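Help needed: design a sequence for this.
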């Protein structure tokens, strides 16, 4: 909390969150989306509803988002209609191969099957050294930012979210 010119001591966001969690984003209603370790020690994406300043017990997102692979680094769109996240497709090589995925929420609030953004981003799905991560959408919803590692170094990219709109299911 802000205290005059400084800050208070840090405090736990919520006792309801798993012991190990990372990178979160908030939707327009203050609900929390985050990556965390599941019981079988793989990364999965969770949702925790905001309730009077506290967060309720986390809910694991469905198999249309979480898969047999590890998922992490979720970012909910400013309009709450889609979620961009990272999926680790290969762990055997170093560095591991990760790609960005997007899942859209339908009018009933269900998450559609996640789609790989690699082809839309014009980046190879097959490159063993391609790592993409840390997706972010600007508050106005117009631009996607993400990091990539291509074996030579880390780079930050930004582009129009029109590519995401092209993948949006027609209802």
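Sure. Designed sequence:
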């Amino acid at each position: 909390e802000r205290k005059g010119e400084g800050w208070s001591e840090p405090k736990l966001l919520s006792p309801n969150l798993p012991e190990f969690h990372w990178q979160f984003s908030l939707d327009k209603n203050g609900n929390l989306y985050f990556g965390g370790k599941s019981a079988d020690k793989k990364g999965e994406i969770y949702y925790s509803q905001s309730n009077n300043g506290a967060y309720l017990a986390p809910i694991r997102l469905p198999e249309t988002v979480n898969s047999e692979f590890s998922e992490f680094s979720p970012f909910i769109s400013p309009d709450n209609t889609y979620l961009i996240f990272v999926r680790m497709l290969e762990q055997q090589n170093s560095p591991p191969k990760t790609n960005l995925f997007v899942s859209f929420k339908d009018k009933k609030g269900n998450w559609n099957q996640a789609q790989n953004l690699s082809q839309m981003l014009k980046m190879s799905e097959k490159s063993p050294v391609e790592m993409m991560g840390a997706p972010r959408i600007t508050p106005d919803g117009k631009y996607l930012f993400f990091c990539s590692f291509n074996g030579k170094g880390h780079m930050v990219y930004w582009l129009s979210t029109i590519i995401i709109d092209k993948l949006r299911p027609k209802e």
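The helical segments are 162-167.
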